[in-house]
Design brief:
Length: 598
């Protein structure tokens, strides 16, 4: 059954995308910046899939990552890098477009039958590079017209394990690529699949595919890989994961694949050196979203958004073996690459400048020279779906000190994704909760599912985001400042969810909300009972193949008419007995709407 579910919902499948710059054609006058390309500025970009901070450079001295640590020494190491979304395809689409997922259209995972796609008019790195006479390849993000790569080795026509986890195979593909057209500048994008979970698709290889290619019977061999195994007693359990044997064993398996990823990075960098490109190649290493553990991937909490990142530049005055604390977003990658290649984001031939949304990110090249003076900078995040059923829109702003999260559909329980659901870590949380066993975790399952509309954390005193101060009167000013900035960003980035959950976007061009459209109570009752009928039928039909993770809360409620009414009453209470902060919030919403209407 796992296998069936897994194959129908394969995701996070971007592996190896190679593309090369053509010689600059003298006839393409507007691209005169491409002279720099002729200067063979080259770039390698490695992204780990669900990778985290499990390396010595980020103070984890159990997980062995000598190659990443060496790269970190030669790089500027980022201590405050954040993804703009905590889900694979959306994150990679925003990496390649510089636009948050709600703006580029990749609301959820690209793969599987529900494939989300970016909007047709969106500018992407491959598209821009192609306009500048670049030959490209594509994968994992779509549609093809938006991401027109033309040379690719990806999971679409290769085995996911071969192009994503077989580091020997990856090495050989990179070697093949680098041996071609040695006089042309290139952009090489390598997205490892390690350390993504694998228990839902290839359980025979272990929860993280940590046994794939380890030389045991039936596992095959990856000639370049020296597997490193970890004792579950020794792993470093992050504060956001429960400290139990089941979770520790899960982490130990994850470490093994991080060490494989690390060795893969070493092989790729060696290929680069051997081919003579080290001295003219910018190397960026980062990941797409947080690790697949509770509060990590699919969450906008720190473990879901914070990313490892390092940039190794061949330019002599660029900083190396240094740490930056500057707030950085993965939305900054596109501006950085365009800056590196000296290519404009828009040009006057291909697109109407009015149609192309401006980038909100910034080039990181200046940061490579000098640490900027901090100026109340902020990074933003926007999450809508992961899997198609996991509709849980959230928007967040994070400054150096504070984080504000808006859980737009906060009355729904937080959804759990499939590969995390079947993982030993989550099963352990479920089992212990159901059996009322001790759960050494900083949350309860219920508090994980049930989130308030607004969450505000003072990260200086509360880096683990345990103490929501959104309703504290002492935090009122910072709350409203952050809220205004968040709404402003949503407006600038054309967020269709700008007015949600209480308003309606009535004018999309100028982003105007309807001043008032609270949920109508009578239709709500009607709606609930209808939903209930269809749900009961659905449950009967599919009982055998569905697994529920909401044992503790809603399932019982919706199957009882009387309790449906009770929920309506609870809704009423919610509407009329809001705490101070929520009233404040509504007022501010109203003010903003009025301002806009005016
Ligand atoms: C996959 O497709 C690309 C073209 O889209 C091609 O260059 C590559 O050789 C193919 N790989 C395999 C293993 O068929
Ligand atoms: C290399 O250059 C040749 C000649 O310009 C071209 O035909 C070929 O397609 C190029 N190969 C790649 C991989 O760019
Ligand atoms: C990994 O790739 C190499 C080279 O293609 C191959 O020889 C080896 O069998 C592969 N390993 C596995 C486990 O598939
Ligand atoms: C701080 O940021 C604001 C707006 O982002 C900008 O107008 C101002 O010039 C910046 N100040 C400094 C000192 O960089
Ligand atoms: C959870 O409980 C189920 C059913 O009792 C059991 O099969 C499974 O091994 C348990 N998993 C963990 C991680 O505790």
């Amino acid at each position: 059954m796992l296998k069936r579910i897994g194959l129908s919902k394969l995701y996070c499948l971007l592996f190896l995308i190679l593309f090369k710059l053509y010689n600059v054609d003298a006839n393409i006058a507007p691209y005169k910046n491409a002279v720099l390309l002729l200067g063979k500025n080259s770039l390698i970009f490695c992204a780990a899939d669900d990778g985290g901070f499990e390396m010595r450079s980020y103070l984890n001295n159990i997980c062995q990552t000598p190659n990443l640590d060496k790269l970190a020494k030669e790089s500027l190491l980022f201590n405050n890098a954040y993804s703009s979304v905590s889900s694979c395809s959306p994150s990679r689409s925003s990496l390649l477009t510089g636009l948050p997922s709600h703006q580029n259209g990749m609301y959820g995972l690209h793969h599987g039958i529900h494939h989300f796609n970016s909007f047709k008019t969106v500018q992407s790195l491959p598209r821009i590079l192609k306009r500048n006479n670049i030959r490209t390849g594509k994968k994992h993000v779509g549609p093809n017209s938006v991401y027109p790569f033309d040379f690719s080795q990806t999971e679409e026509n290769n085995s996911i394990l071969q192009v994503g986890r077989n580091i020997t195979k990856i090495k050989l593909l990179v070697r093949e690529f680098l041996s071609q057209n040695k006089t042309k500048p290139f952009f090489l994008y390598i997205a490892f699949h390690d350390p993504h979970r694998c228990g839902h698709t290839h359980p025979e290889y272990g929860n993280f595919c940590e046994k794939f290619g380890n030389g045991d019977i039936g596992m095959g061999t990856i000639p370049d890989w020296y597997p490193i195994y970890y004792q579950w007693e020794q792993v470093k359990v992050p504060y956001f994961v429960q400290n139990t044997e089941a979770a520790r064993r899960d982490i130990a398996a994850q470490y093994t694949t991080i060490s494989r990823l690390d060795q893969g990075v070493g092989l790729v960098l060696k290929e680069l050196d051997d081919a003579g490109f080290k001295d003219n190649t910018l190397v960026i290493y980062t990941s797409d979203n947080g690790i697949p553990f509770p509060n990590g991937r699919t969450n906008l909490y720190e473990p879901g958004l914070a990313e490892p990142m390092m940039i190794r530049s061949p330019i002599s005055n660029h900083r190396k073996n240094t740490v930056t604390h500057s707030l950085t977003s993965l939305l900054d990658i596109v501006p950085t690459l365009l800056d590196w290649f000296n290519i404009p984001y828009m040009d006057r031939f291909s697109f109407d400048a009015n149609e192309v949304p401006p980038l909100t990110g910034k080039s990181l090249l200046p940061l490579l020279v000098q640490e900027p003076t901090e100026n109340d900078t902020a990074v933003f995040a926007s999450q809508t779906h992961h899997e198609v059923t996991m509709y849980y829109p959230m928007r967040a702003i994070r400054t150096k000190r504070f984080k504000l999260i808006h859980n737009i559909n906060y009355k729904m329980p937080f959804p759990i994704d499939q590969d995390f659901y079947v993982s030993p870590t989550f099963q352990d949380i479920l089992n212990r909760t159901k059996n009322k066993q001790h759960l050494p975790w900083y949350k309860t399952l219920e508090s994980y599912y049930e989130r308030p509309e607004w969450e505000l954390y003072d990260l200086k005193y509360d880096p683990e985001e345990k103490n929501n101060i959104a309703s504290k009167s002492s935090a009122r000013k910072i709350f409203s400042d952050l809220q205004q900035r968040l709404l402003k960003w949503q407006e600038v980035t054309n967020d269709p969810w700008l007015c949600a959950p209480r308003g309606v976007l009535i004018e999309t061009k100028s982003m105007i909300c309807s001043p008032s459209s609270p949920p109508l109570l009578v239709p709500l009752i009607f709606h609930s009972s209808k939903v209930q009928t269809s749900r009961l039928k659905f449950e009967k039909r599919t009982r055998a193949s569905c697994v529920g993770h909401l044992e503790t809360s809603y399932v019982f409620f919706v199957s009882q008419v009387s309790v449906v009414l009770l929920m309506v009453i609870v809704n009423l209470l919610h509407l009329y007995q809001k705490n101070e902060a929520q009233q404040q919030t509504t007022k501010q919403h109203e003010q903003i709407r009025i301002l806009k209407a005016a």
